[in-house]
Write a structure and sequence with these properties.
The chain has about 180 residues and is of the alpha+beta class. It is built from 5 helices and 7 strands. The chain has one domain: Gcn5-related N-acetyltransferase (GNAT) (Aminopeptidase, 3-Layer(aba) Sandwich), CATH 3.40.630. A hairpin with a 5-residue loop joins strand 6 and strand 7. The longest helix is centred in the first third of the chain and has 16 residues.
């Protein structure tokens, strides 16, 4: 991975509107077209702003990938364990006590443009996130994720996840215990 790629927390990017548009473009390339007029993505971003940790890979002043994590309240953790957590259920993320001794996170989204895959950027993003959590003195207990794609499965396998259950569509719900890193 070229040293010209830098990782920064999304909340440090001044032009949030431009960032959201670029993230939508990245999602469109990685996952297929989403409706840019759909307020879902932008509203989701704004509503989760207090509990989201988003890290963006930048090359030549342009985003080329990102990872998003959100803090889960106890209700959200229980829903994950039963395979019932659905995207966009904001009540499972808000009102998280960041002064709690240990936080649980949900790894909700990841996308890296195809030209930058298989170069260690995912690992670089994940390591940056862990370093950020340590720097901010956030004590992370577990990171939960839903595996949607074979690429996601291959990536998370490197982090020693444990299968919890499957959601109604058959996607694996997993947990990565921070002690494993």
């Amino acid at each position: 991975m070229s040293d010209s790629v830098k990782i920064i927390p999304a909340n440090e990017i001044i032009d949030q509107e431009k960032l959201i548009k670029k993230l939508i473009e990245i999602d469109n390339i990685c996952y297929g077209e989403i409706d840019e007029k759909d307020e879902g993505f932008e509203e989701y971003w704004k509503k989760l702003n207090k509990s989201i940790f988003s890290f963006v890979a930048i090359k030549n002043d342009e985003p080329i990938g990102y990872f998003d994590f959100v803090a889960l309240n106890d209700f959200g953790v229980e829903k994950i364990k039963t395979g019932l957590l659905r995207d966009g259920e904001l009540e499972d993320f808000i009102d998280v006590d960041f002064n709690k001794s240990e936080l649980n996170l949900n790894f909700i989204s990841a996308a890296i443009l195809p030209d930058y895959r298989k170069m260690g950027l995912g690992k670089k993003l994940m390591n940056f996130a862990f370093d950020y959590f340590k720097e901010k003195d956030l004590k992370i207990k577990n990171i939960y994720a839903t595996i949607w794609t074979p690429a996601g499965h291959a990536f998370l396998k490197k982090f020693n996840y444990k299968l919890i259950t499957k959601d109604p569509q058959g996607h694996e719900m997993v947990v990565m215990e921070i002690g494993d890193f």
